[in-house]
Fold these 3 entries.
Entry 1:
Amino acid sequence: MTETSERGAAEGSRRAELAAFLKTRRAKIQPGDVGLPDGVRRRAAGLRREEVAQLAGVGLSWYTWLEQGRAINASTQVLDALATTLRMDPVEREHLHVLAGAVPLRGQADDLVIPDAVFAILRSLDPLPATLATSRLDTLGTNEAFQVLFAGWHDLGCLHHNGLWCTITEPNARRWLPDYDDDIAYLVARLRSNYARHIGDPEWEANIARLSATSPEFAKIWARQEVAEPCLRSRRVMHPDLVQRRIDPSGVMRL
């Protein structure tokens, strides 16, 4: 495949991703949410295309083409109007702009170089379990506390070195993680958000295809088109051996 054809394929994938995202967001909004009467029984959940177009102040044909993945341009103002109409939160709004090509995409680096100082910070966080990961959730490093906490996580050893893979494909994950459903939903939403800037990248596309083929659970969550930004959140772990160990008021687990 030539460089030009690769760019064309990536652009087509980006437009398809934008179309799918708009459809899922439209399906989540009920007429009453935006001040419209419910009217006659609807064949599908959510707003109709013509209702979105009217509320956002754009042409119906233009919006229909956008949802069909056609090669059309959208200004920042129009994208903001659509985001407001579809009641998108700030993370979804940014995701919409990225998919629509309204923000510059970061270039791809051939080699990822992590300064030694970063790994020193990672080690210094002991006794707090900590890990360093890429935007694709590949694990770059862990500290000793993390290694101790998850020493018995895999029955056959770690094969993927990726936070999402190692959670969604591990049979014991639900037993270890009492908030498993929320944890997985967040990880997939983070991956979806980061993917918007890497659509068409062969490694990203292959990773998502393998995940979808391996895990029906991932494929189902991925289809929801949910996105999330990095945030402070708690992740509870019910370690079979360490669960009875004391945790002091500062939240530090005494391993």
Entry 2:
Amino acid sequence: MAPPIKALIFDVDGTLAETEEVHRLAFNRAFAEAGLPWVWESDFYGELLAVHGGRARLVHFIEHYAPPMAEEGRKQIDELHAAKTRLFAKLVDRRLARPRPGIERLIDDARSQGLAVVLATTSSVENAEALILANFGLDGLEKITAIVGGADAVRPKPAPDVYELALARLGITPRAAIVFEDNGPGLAAATAAGIRTIVTPSRYAGDDDFSSAFAVLSHLGDTFEPYHHIAGVGDEGGTDMVTVAALQRWVSDDDDMLGLLTIGGRPVY
């Protein structure tokens, strides 16, 4: 029998909620406060999302696009990023980033069955906490076992650092966890860490490659809002929500199949 799943690891931006548009608004407001004539439109911001981490995104923008007042902006990188974080928290507090279908339900399901719930993001821990507090209240933070943020990882996604750190903090193997992601770089990071990954594509995912995903679903599903199956596991009849029981079943079936491939009697994953 396959070992049970012990932890669910969630990316934050785009996975827990469609936050990237809120980040974009916060960046633009920070630029205006600083007197910088920069405005990131949606399409352009989608291109910038190839760079993970808000501070790194700012540096990339200045160095590669040579915007007006670039030197003034370069001198204010830390101040701009701090202002953006503050403004993001204010916008999130106004409930501008609502959780995607099934997120709160699955977190409650996992905690009720003793699973760890971890947030792993290239963004800051402060941003993740602001999102949880605004949508789930103080009780929401108590449901989160740990948060691994961008400052904790040496390399951002698509490097596997943030997911390897999450596994290390939990003291579990990659096969004992499932990651939930929304885009290609995040999937690449989790896959490189050896963790099965369920992708629920977000607004900015575009044409990302999800071929290595354990499953690709429209979202996690909720009462009266079933998910749409796109690829991978989860296409069994009558399944309309991702639950812990369904995850354990999918993993067990997957391990049974993979276990048929052996070298010296040991499964090859």
Entry 3:
Amino acid sequence: MADAVRVFLVDDHEVVRRGLRDMIDAEDDLEVVGDAATAGMALAGIAQTKPDVAVLDVRLPDGNGVEVCREVRARDPRIACLMLTSFGDDEALFDAIMAGAAGYLLKDVRGNDLLDAIRRVAAGDSLLDPAVTGKVLERLRRGDEEDPRLTSLSEQERRILALIAEGLTNRQIAERMHLAEKTVKNYVSNLLAKLGMQRRTEAAVFYTQVERGEA
């Protein structure tokens, strides 16, 4: 299998990793060279094995696949990243495109379609819909006009701010984002400091106004 596409799998569920490994290794032109359950393990494993394609779960216990994708692409742009998630999350899709992902698939994708996607991104193709990338470019243009306080926030902080605006508590945000509640609390403290605000209600009102174009 000297010419096989080398694949690295990242998912926090062992049964998912095993299922994907069995399916991929059954193909003559594909080979799984490693797998990981966390972002930290993924970065170390990918650096060591140097795969052609990294199949990344978006949500991980110690971070997310988008952050792993960004770091992997920064270290070695030759590695194609294929995002795999259970959630149809527009924000995550935007972040994935910005991180340099070559494709974004839901976990209910058929096995043959996933195998085809791995082959295509390994060959240099992009699985991202041109209409979606167009929306990303438009959003980037709008970003130049955003409130500077909002642009000072990291992507993760902006996601948490949006959930605060929905009225979610730290515990609910932690459950939604698969993070520790203490981690969310730290994010909230940091984003409030960046916004120059004392209370989460202020931040919620501010975000709502920005979304409506009133800020």
